[in-house]
Write a structure and sequence with these properties.
This protein is mainly alpha-helical. It has 7 helices and no strands. Helices cover 68% and strands 0% of the residues. The longest helix has 29 residues. This is Phage DNA packaging protein.
Length: 188
Amino acid sequence: MASQAEVAAHLLLSDRRLRDLAKLPGAPVPQGRGDWELDAWRHFYIHYLRSNRRDTVGTDEPEVGDNSPEKNREQWLKNEERQERILMARVKRRILAKRYAPIELISVAVSRVAVELRTRVESWPPRLKKVWPEMPQEASSVLREELAIALNELADIRVDFSDYDVSDIERDLDRVESLARDDTDDGG
């Protein structure tokens, strides 16, 4: 959430201009005092600029120069939207390549590591007592060997992602992308 001034600065508008835009139909409504949604305003402003451009195409007004602030702002917003689409595509590729997992799977993997480590550590005292009660050189060598085995086992732990169903996240990503296309669709 952002304040009105932050949204205005992000869109390169004055506070007054943003308040005027907020009165238009379809403008995002702040959730509370100072809770303006930056993404919603960005999409609304892009849609607003595109609809105004379509309205003024048939008029006899002179065209705005390439260096006008309005043109620069519109280009900046398009670039921002393009960057968001690229980021969403990267996330989707990582999900499909199974190089991305939800927190639940990662926590399961960490818990498996902890169980393996705990099992190894609990086996040290009986093994040391078997070797020698006063901890001679043999005991320290066994300890070193056990540490090496434990570290090797921890290094070889692999998480089985076959339980992970990617389709739920894919569906959510498709829905978000379709909503973004609907918001930025310039009508043909």
